[in-house]
Amino acid sequence: MISTLREFRRVGRAVQVLVVNQFFMKAGFYMLMPYLATHLTSGLGTATWVAGLVLGVRSFSQQGLYVLGGMLTDRYGARRLVIAGCLLRTVGFGMLGFVDSLPSLLVAAGLTGLAGALFSPAVRGCLSEHAGERRLEVFALSNVFRQSGVVIGPLAGVALIALDFRLACAVSAGLFLALTVLQVRTLPRRPYEVEAAAQPLRGCLPTLLRNRRFLCFSAAMTGSYVLSFQVYLAVPLQVRRVLGPAYSGAGMTALLVLSAAVVVIGQVRVTAWARRRWTPSQALVRGLVIMGLGFLPLALAAAFPYGDLDHGLPESLGEPFDLAPTLTAVLLLAVGGIVIYPFELEMITLLSDGTYFASYYGFYNTISGIGMAVGDFATGAAWDAGKRAGGPGLLWFALVVLGAVSACAVAAVARVRPAAPAA
Fold first, then answer.
1. What transmembrane ranges does the database entry give (predicted)?
2. How far apart are CA 288 and CA 284, in angstroms?
3. Domains in the chain, please, with CATH?
């Protein structure tokens, strides 16, 4: 924590505002969104498909429009897009607490997703611009604040929703309104300037699509998103399988808090250590390998079940022993994510060749979102197939392989040099 505070003091005022912004954005989001489906089905009495539709609209409006947010940032400036995004999320979260018709809920969900599509590429582009040569350190600092918000948000949300869901919506909306005012007062007024800023928007997308190294890199890195998202998909299912429904919620909460604590405590130090030893691509390869290896203990435990071993331990230790592979997976996913996050953003900046920073970030997020959706569907199908076969061992081995394949793909992209410009 001392190294994090020291790094925070080193950066400029604009970066300080942006990373604090990241904390409150994540806290405000996770204060509400994890509990929205329960509110819709239990509080409003909607069908499950309605809750799925509302959540799907939110996800699609964010993931699908990231590239638009990036392009608008490069054209009109990060300050305007960050302010617009915070304001839209204020309206969207406020609506979610006080509307009950399907059209209104869809509008509210769409606004919250669009808000994220606007301010996320803008914040990353603005961080890249203001960080200068200290991009890696700033990206690491940003992740510390983001993960802190991920921990604080749900805890605050539980307390507020115990009183009233509308109160949670009002507090979250008020938080984003305060962020809107903060951005208006503190973010620099000068436009977000890159070499291509004066070019029309129609030149942006062709530039991105011609950058084959960037496209290949984006495709290769989708594996990291599929792996990291298992903390919210396959890992909770495994925790429920081991601990049962009565204790799975508490067990999963403890694992998520532990994961976030690893990031908060280790991010800045690990980034500084890795920067001295590895290039960005080398760091990414190692991070992907670590994430993939996180699922190896689960795969081995599925192949050699605890109950079949002559372990000689008391029966009361069975459940903790069975949970150990899951704990290992969560810890290694957190460590791999620590290694990957700042170098991932650094690689995107390097591949952008100094132009269209935010558009590259936005397009990258859109590709990652598509890959993650496909990966999540495949994960769910593999889990169901594993249940029919007696256990999810095949899924865990597949995730280990995915980490290795993604690492090899990133290494291959790094070995390809950009073509020399025509004479």
1. 39-60, 81-99, 165-182, 214-235, 247-271, 283-304, 324-343, 355-374, 394-414
2. 6
3. 1-193 (1.20.1250.20), 207-416 (1.20.1250.20)
